[in-house]
Amino acid sequence: MKMIVLGLILLIIGLLVGMGLLTTIGGILILVGAILWILGATGRAVGGRKHFF
């Protein structure tokens, strides 16, 4: 969840300031965070952990 929030913050800052790099990094963090969250919610262990907090 922290990764998704950080991605949202970077995405918003990138859009407001006009920096494409921050927008791209924010989008990637949101995507990876959502994938890890979904895998953790289904009970599948990712990287030796069942939950990503």
TrEMBL record:
This protein's record includes keyword Membrane: yes
Domain of life: Bacteria
Residue spans crossing the bilayer: 6-39
Record key words, sorted: Membrane, Transmembrane, Transmembrane helix
Protein name: DUF4337 domain-containing protein
UniProt source species: Streptomyces anulatus
